[in-house]
Amino acid sequence: MTRIENRVCDSSPMTTTFIPPSVPEISTYRTTTYVSEIPESVLKNPEKPCCLGVDEAGRGPVVGPMVYGVSYCLEEYEPRLKDFGFADSKTLTEQKRSELLESLCNGDHELRKNVGWATTSISACDISSAMLKPHNIGNYNLNEQAHDVTMELIDKVIQKGVNLRHVYVDTVGPPASYQKKLQQRFPALLITVSKKADAIYPCVSSASVCAKVTRDVCLRTSNGEENLLDCGSGYPSDPNTKKWLAQSIHPLFGWSRDVRFSWQTAKDCLERHNSIKVVFGEEEPTPVNFGDLGLSKQKTDFKDLEISTSWWGH
């Protein structure tokens, strides 16, 4: 897992081609994490409690990463976020989302001085690898991946010395059980897990924007073998995504690692296009080699070996 810690935000004037620091400068198929610097107001008031919101973007798509975002500020500052237009990222235009995140990165902007944030982009490759592990090992389902990344991001903020008091999370699965899990992991914090948290709590709205913009830009800047600009939103129901999957498919290799091969959508597409089936035979067991013991190589079963007991007790 690649970590991109404390990369400096671009404080240049607003641009129409903003690329947030949460997007790796060199495109990668591996999971990456970005953590911003602690905002000025939090540094100057270490005794004041902070709130933190958690949300994700890209849970359901068959193409691209799933991005988790957190955003935090002083509790007394949180209501101010609404004044800048933070809301559920799905209700905002792409331009508005980009402008908001750019404000969080602009060194002279009020938001940059008051709000910290972080993201983890779980790559499609890592999602699929975890979900397609052999049964004897046990797969790592999407909920477990989401929970673990959420806890890692919260922990990173705490490790920076931020005085967190309340964490608000947009739910993944049943709210009650998820809240209990987080509360056990962070017993000193107040935890609220809620449906539609991104529309209720401003700090979650901010996290939602951070996650959504990061995912969208990751799709546009991918250097995979295919042109992801034509893949639409990446959701299975998107006609542009369906068209792109059908037109980009390779009969043997499928697609690049920007596609979640563990998704049923990808499996169905491979079958519909008569892709080549690959069958992996069972691995041959490694023969026991007793050569170093001076024993016959034919005697590979312990029950056939003569065992001396003349040393016993000496």
UniProtKB/TrEMBL annotation:
Provide any one GO MF term from the record: RNA binding
**Name recorded for this polypeptide:** Ribonuclease
Q: Which catalysed reactions does the entry list for this protein?
A: Endonucleolytic cleavage to 5'-phosphomonoester
Q: What EC number(s) does the entry state?
A: 3.1.26.4
Q: Where does a divalent metal cation bind?
A: 55-56, 170
What lineage does the source organism belong to?
A: Eukaryota, Fungi, Dikarya, Ascomycota, Saccharomycotina
Q: Does the keyword rRNA-binding apply?
A: no
GO process terms (BP): DNA replication, removal of RNA primer; ribonucleotide excision repair
Task performed by this protein = Endonuclease that specifically degrades the RNA of RNA-DNA hybrids.
Q: Which cofactor does it need?
A: Mn(2+); Mg(2+)
CDD domains named among the record's database cross-references: RNase_HII_eukaryota_like (cd07181)
Sequence similarity: Belongs to the RNase HII family. Eukaryotic subfamily.
Q: Which SUPFAM superfamilies match?
A: Ribonuclease H-like
Query: What's the source species for this entry?
Result: Komagataella phaffii (strain GS115 / ATCC 20864) (Yeast)
Q: Where is the RNase H type-2 domain?
A: 49-275
* Cofactor binding annotation: Manganese or magnesium. Binds 1 divalent metal ion per monomer in the absence of substrate. May bind a second metal ion after substrate binding.
Cellular component, GO annotation: ribonuclease H2 complex
**Chaperone in keyword set:** no
* Record's keyword terms, sorted: Endonuclease, Hydrolase, Metal-binding, Nuclease
Q: Matching InterPro entries, A to Z?
A: RNase_H2_suA (IPR004649), RNase_HII/HIII (IPR001352), RNase_HII/HIII_dom (IPR024567), RNase_HII_hlx-loop-hlx_cap_dom (IPR023160), RNaseH-like_sf (IPR012337), RNaseH_sf (IPR036397)
